[in-house]
Design brief:
Shape: globular
Structural class: alpha+beta
Radius of gyration: 18 Å
Order of helices and strands: EEHHEEEEEHEHHHHH
Largest sheet: 2 strands, antiparallel
CATH superfamily: Transferase(Phosphotransferase) domain 1
Number of strands: 8
CATH class: Mainly Alpha
Number of helices: 8
Strand order of the largest sheet: 1-2
CATH topology: Transferase(Phosphotransferase), domain 1
CATH architecture: Orthogonal Bundle
Length: 236
Amino acid sequence: MRNVRHRNLVPVITTCSSDCIRAFVLQYMPNGSLENWLYKEESHLNLLQRVSIMLDVAVAIEYVHRGHNTTIVHCYLKPANVLFDEDMMAQVGDFGISKILAVSKSMAHTETLGTLGYIAPEYGSEGIVSTSGDIYSYGIMLMEVLAARRPTDEEIFNENLDLREWIRRAFPRIMMEVVDANLFPEEEQITSKSEICIASMVDLALDCTKKTPGSRITMKDVVKRLKKIKNGFLEA
């Protein structure tokens, strides 16, 4: 991990290992986490900022999946592990439970899981880790970023739903009723370009979170589609 370098990955400075602790030492990120920005009352991110952040995350994960000489599966994607530097550039951190896949293998087995709500179904049922698992977690995080609702949100659970099903039922007919109101500052009008952008991102998130690993898109496709969504939003 110390040899992995990318503008959207929190740099690993060194590692610590003793009888009591095994840890990465990471570069300090002064602007906190995406989780803080989503849920603290005084912190707000508009739609363009959220699109840009999720594009940065996708680029980082595509790099560890395909851009390095070994395939790394993060296994722990969630807003708390997306951090911001002094320029508010998003960087993915916390590779503490990541898995490095052998060149000859596209998946591995593990008993180490991530956080409830972000874990791909095959992690829990079979202990199978693959790049498709990261894509599932990314899709859940994309829904959370749009709706500002955690996967374990009590209101959603009380309806016997998970976040994906809650979003899927709202899409596309009442989509604007479930997105975060803080996407749009009071002085900003909700326009057709905003609605198209949100609908495209939800559609992408649903493609990332399909039930079986083989039916999900790749992170390369995620990056390509998000770039198109961002460019369309800026040009409209």
